[in-house]
Design brief:
With about 240 residues, this protein is α+β, with helices and mostly antiparallel strands. It has 2 domains: about 130 residues, Protein of unknown function (DUF541), domain 1 (Translation Initiation Factor IF3, 2-Layer Sandwich), CATH 3.30.110.170; about 110 residues, 2-Layer Sandwich (Alpha-Beta Plaits). Helix content is about 25%, strand content about 35%. It is built from 4 helices and 9 strands, in the order βββαβαβαβαβββ. Helix 1 packs antiparallel against helix 3. The longest helix is centred in the C-terminal third of the chain and has 25 residues.
Length: about 240
């Protein structure tokens, strides 16, 4: 809950109780209380791409060697493309024996090559428009367990503040209409509270893409998503 306290212009200031969330209603304190909700929808400008791999080996050392090769190849591919190291963060990594149920359908020869496994994953933060490029670089370098993308804003406060401002304006409009119906004039804002609500993410249709040439695989067609932020404002106005 985000609370914004706004001071009335001298008039009716004494009407606000010691507890800022309690407005005393009396003949001396004429008020209108309104609750309003509004929202904004904006295209995400930041993407967090999840990339990772799994590889195997006949021994722990062999699996680790395969993992080391893939791990460094993936990070090098990203770095060579200009992704800063500060944008690449490790999520998890593990070296572990392969469980029997994981290889029960394989031949004995295949099972012998999959005694141990190495897994590793990272998150790569980038501009939303570069998400497909980052994913493509990682996959082509060996990141065979990749694809999840989290969409967000560089400045998360901006859309929340915009939604709250719209909700407050809606509350003022409703209060003015109520005041007019009472043959009164809307006065100063005495109190306002703001709650930014959880927002669903709206998927954007992916771009159509022609079939790639056999010798060159193009990046996946990935578009940023639209994110909706909504806010509910409870406002109390004086009436004159």
């Amino acid at each position: 809950m985000k609370i914004v306290r706004l001071t009335a212009i001298a008039v009716c200031a004494a009407a606000v109780a010691a507890s800022a969330q309690t407005i005393q209603v009396s003949k001396e304190n004429r008020t209108i209380s309104v609750t309003a909700t509004d929202k904004v929808t904006a295209m995400a400008d930041t993407a967090t791409v999840h990339v990772g791999f799994i590889t195997y080996g006949p021994s722990s050392d062999a699996a680790y060697a395969n993992g080391s090769r893939l791990s460094n190849a993936i990070v090098k591919a990203l770095s060579d493309a200009g992704v800063p190291s500060s944008a690449i963060e490790s999520e998890n990594q593990a070296v572990a024996p392969v469980q029997p149920y994981q290889v029960e359908k394989l031949t004995d020869a295949e099972k012998a090559q999959r005694k141990f496994q190495v897994t590793q994953s990272w998150t790569v933060r980038t501009n939303a428009d570069d998400a497909a490029k980052v994913l493509d670089l990682a996959v082509k370098a060996g990141a065979n367990q990749s694809g999840q993308i989290d969409w967000s804003f560089k400045d998360e406060n901006a859309p929340e503040a915009e939604a709250a401002a719209k909700a407050l304006q809606r509350a003022r409009t409703q209060a003015e209409q109520m005041a007019q119906s009472l043959n009164a004039k809307l006065g100063a804002l005495l109190y306002a509270s703001n709650e930014v609500q959880a927002s669903p993410i709206r998927p954007v249709m992916m771009r159509a893409m022609a079939a790639p040439a056999a010798e060159k695989v193009q990046p996946l067609a990935i578009n940023p998503r639209q994110i909706e932020k909504s806010a509910t404002v409870h406002a109390v106005f004086a009436i004159e």
